[in-house]
Amino acid sequence: MRKKIVAGNWKMNMDYNEGLSLFSEVINMVKDEVTGSQQAVVCSPFIHLHSLAQMAKGYHKVVIGAQNAHQAESGAYTGETSAKMIHSVGAEYVILGHSERRQYFGETNELLARKTDTALKHGLKPIFCIGETLTERESDQHFDIIKTQLTEGVFHLSEAHFEHIVLAYEPVWAIGTGKTATSQQAQEIHAFIRIEIAAKYGQEIAANTTILYGGSCTPKNAPELFAQPDIDGGLIGGASLKSRDFVDIVKVFN
Ligand code: PGA
């Protein structure tokens, strides 16, 4: 059975102390309130990773992730952070291909394929984001865009490597806008993604791949979204900055 995951993406929010208090609230609530087999992932800025990983020790329901990693192993890349470094502080996941990285930092599918390889090589599990813009949806290109992002970003992987990938469908028009995809719109794309995975890697791997929905997900809309057969959890931006909201979304799977 595939894993149910709710991942928080703090983006560039929370100074060091704010992040630590938010995370300790999350851990305490998850410990007392979350009963199922779902996993919560908190993807913080780099500065928090080590401390959060220490705080999360012993609670296997809560693990830590980064929001980006460089494609190179190491070297003269001032200001960058490598996958090996991220893994060495105890993070398990890394978000790759978030639309903000694609849009503001010019990350292409080809670059993201390299980042994915390096992350996997160093034991990180990528949460690989895909999704169309509003213009692409309105001109009916969304299926093609998703297919290209999959083909160029992750379908070069061997089966053994692909099994460590979590996918996140995040329609760009729904991110931080308060405009969620309807559960039907999201399910339609998730089902399409699973069909594409099956065509490439076979039914079993497709059935075992966790596919998250992201984009203005809240405690209010999460139950309906997560009830869809191909939606296995969420990637949560804004609502992950409030411990109560984040944990309520994690608890949807209770
Ligand atoms: P949002 O962000 O929940 O604030 O829309 C989601 C994301 O960017 O991952």
Any overview of this molecule?
The chain is globular, with a radius of gyration of 17 Å. It has one domain (5-253): TIM Barrel, CATH 3.20.20. β2 (39-43), α2 (46-56) and β3 form a beta-alpha-beta unit. α1 (16-33) runs parallel beside α2. It has an 8-stranded parallel barrel with strand order 1-2-3-4-5-6-7-8, surrounded by 6 helices. 44% of the residues lie in helices and 15% in strands. The two termini are 16 Å apart. With 254 residues, the chain is of the alpha/beta class. The structure holds 2-phosphoglycolic acid (PGA). 2-phosphoglycolic acid binds at residues 9, 170, 175-176, 214-217, 235-239. The site of 2-phosphoglycolic acid has 13 residues, from β8.
Task: Give the tags.
binds 2-phosphoglycolic acid; 15% strand; 254 residues; 44% helix; 8 strands; TIM Barrel; alpha/beta; 12 helices; 8-stranded parallel β-barrel
